[in-house]
């Protein structure tokens, strides 16, 4: 089988100092090495083991606040609904909930997690292309803020479920604006070829139908064009302009439109990207949707949580191949799948103070999983990393733990929240016993031991 090709970059990788300069919650301390807020990461790795996800509460708060402030400064009446699929840790959701955030959920599990973290149902949006009747019923029972419907079939289903319950479902229509967000194909959602949303040309008729159906209160329109959007505001502007035009047309026909959902997708710098700022996003919303004077909603996931997290890992061994150095870690693609799935680049920093200043040479950083795709990076400038050396993958706070699996019968990694000088395990490492515990062997196969 051919080896996966390394992602091609035409600029040099940022060095350790450049990576740190853009991440205010991380510092290289002379004695303690890499420190998150006031906690040396070596201390967490030694006490909890590796691989371990570590999240900075201060960073979650700071980034949520920056988004909220940018929207307020643009003069928008806006609410923020954190996309729980980016990070559904109860502790992380709790930190964001305490700031006043709502949530955007795409499953019963995420709805339950958001509620368990103290996010009121009245601040939760239910998105996704395939909500089951059970999920719709649970959302209505909880008193959800709104359900974003993605098809005519789903609108009928919501109407039927709500009517049978004697409820009225608040429903927005997710529009597929057919615009190119210019992001990775696997995380682009706003093109007509993608499975998401209702074709722009069908939306007005469906909205009118919604207004006539029992059990449905039409709330407005929603749009989400993709994730990790870094290439300017053109895609956003085009999508919001279409939403504005459609909302105007609906209101012109006397149909009620209460608010508009602008989705998420704002990108973050993993390597040297220069994504649009929250102010630029707020400006684009203001310019396109502002004239309608309606409240707007935002569903950011990655932008809030991505930079707030790291994945700590230990070096199992360094393998000298034919003119290549392989650093084999105890973290793998089952923990952090983004490099294998999206060719994603993550900064990798050693934790020990001396290793942050040691001579560098190229290394391929890999996990122990039996797949060539279990390669985090190739040719990365890293110091000599002997067995037991500790490293941190940067910007692993979004689509990290939530996308992990137990492939190769590897238990789920532990999770830790850092809050100033305090830190706590928020999810203990899964045990091998737990990994086997809920399996059953039919008795006709005979005793197992
Ligand atoms: C995934 C998703 C989001 C969040 O996307 P980010 O890129 O993490 O901001 C928001 N809304 C919907 C409907 C989504 O599917």
From TrEMBL:
Cofactor(s) of this protein: pyridoxal 5'-phosphate
Lineage top rank: taxon: Bacteria
Recorded metabolic or biological pathway in which this protein acts: Amino-acid biosynthesis; L-lysine biosynthesis via DAP pathway; L-lysine from DL-2,6-diaminopimelate: step 1/1
A Pfam short name: Orn_Arg_deC_N
Catalytic activity reported: meso-2,6-diaminopimelate + H(+) = L-lysine + CO2
InterPro entries per the UniProt record, alphabetical: Ala_racemase/Decarboxylase_C, DAP_deCOOHase_LysA, De-COase2_N, De-COase2_pyr-phos_BS, Orn/DAP/Arg_de-COase, PLP-binding_barrel
EC numbers: 4.1.1.20
Residues that, per the record, bind substrate: 302, 338, 342, 371, 399
Binding-site residues, pyridoxal 5'-phosphate: 265, 299-302, 399
SUPFAM superfamilies the record matches: Alanine racemase C-terminal domain-like, PLP-binding barrel
GO biological process, one term: lysine biosynthetic process via diaminopimelate
Orn/DAP/Arg decarboxylase 2 N-terminal domain sequence ranges: 59-305
One Gene Ontology term of the molecular function aspect: pyridoxal phosphate binding
Catalytic-site annotation from UniProt: 370 (proton donor)
Residues bearing PTM N6-(pyridoxal phosphate)lysine: 85
Annotated keywords: Amino-acid biosynthesis, Decarboxylase, Lyase, Lysine biosynthesis, Pyridoxal phosphate
Family of the protein in this entry: Belongs to the Orn/Lys/Arg decarboxylase class-II family. LysA subfamily.
Cited function: Specifically catalyzes the decarboxylation of meso-diaminopimelate (meso-DAP) to L-lysine.
Record text on subunit structure and interactions: Homodimer.
Protein name, as recorded: Diaminopimelate decarboxylase
The species this protein was found in: Muricoccus roseus
